[in-house]
Amino acid sequence: MNDDGEFRADQTQEIFLPAVVPAVPPQHGGAEVVEVAAHRGRTHFEREVVEKLAAAAARSVPGVAELGGDVARFFNAVLDKIGLDKVGDATRGVSARVDGMDVDITVVLVLAAGEVASAITAEVRTRVIEAVENYGLHVSNVDVKVDDIHIQES
Question: How far is it, in rounded angstroms, from Cα 101 to Cα 138?
Fold first, then answer.
């Protein structure tokens, strides 16, 4: 259309459309609520939740004997002796930093003797990332620290 509002086939016509149409929340309940739920709040994961997910994933890797450094394992042994054997087990050996939906994780572990460290640590890293990202978070970094090697006593 030209400035007069007339259509002319011999001229290029331009139409401008907005690139993004903002979501409009429904005025009532029902199935429409689900479609716009993301616009009604935020999701926040506590550090402890991420640590539990990462610890469970790391423990599931064959060749990981234990999680945690020397001090954590010492305190765990003391707690075991006084009957509090499950205290702190869920997150032991894992620390996480949560920044919105981005997460950095450090896993401290003990390898079983005879295992190839690079293969075990790569598998720990892979499983931890998969486990945490299945919850919608983004894992920026997973550092794996081998603190000790567990040698079976005969």
Answer: 6
**Cα(93)–Cα(105) distance, integer angstroms:** 11
| Half-sphere exposure (Cβ direction) of 111: Cα atoms closer than 13 Å | 17
Largest CA distance in the chain: 97
Query: By the 8 A CB rule, do 137 and 102 touch?
Result: yes
The string of pLDDT tens digits covering residues 28-43 is 555 555 555 556 677 8
pTM of structure = 0.66
Cβ(67)–Cβ(55) below 8 Å: yes
Nearest to 145 by CA among 116, 124, 115, 131: 124
Name the residue with tokens 């011999």: 10
Cβ atoms of 132 and 101 within 8 Å: the answer is no
